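Sample log: F-box/SPRY domain-containing protein 1.
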Amino acid sequence: PLLLSQVRAFHHAFPPHDCSRNVYIKKNGPPLHRNPIAQSTDGAPPQIGFSEGRHAWEVPPQGPLGTVAVIGIAPPRAAMQCQGYVALLPPHDQSWGWNLVDNNPPHNGEVNGSFPQCNPPPKYQIGERIRVILDMEDKTLAFERGYEFLGVAFRGLPKVCLYPAVSAVYGNTEVTLVYLGKPLDG
């Protein structure tokens, strides 16, 4: 029998019909698989967005990240494919993310500083779990790596429905989104 966490993961997983043309959802599970297509950035939005409450999900990418690998939040109609190797989430004014490769927090096509703000910034290792924490009550977006809280990356989020989102450029990269529910504090 399926565990409640597995049912919740499938319920919040990436929908196969809204993906970039260069990615697909595996039939035996929720991972998103990016095909090896040159000069393309690809992504997918999950099925469920949030306009209230506090939510946490993990995004454990498997395989190399390439030059751009962004996790974050986006509106329901954000672009999911574009030419070149770019941070796909930020061109929209209601998209926020963290590029795991260069530690940039892009928003609206611009990078303001770096995230996390520690010296030296952490380098993402293959297999590490990245936890995203969206607090629609305090209007913040925060991240954890492993079990280390890295801080709040963005404040003042709008009171609109936002969806977890990812983008990748490296061929054969796989990404899973595991919705955890309300984050635990402490």
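Observation: The chain has one domain: 1-181.
Observation: The chain has a mean pLDDT of 76.
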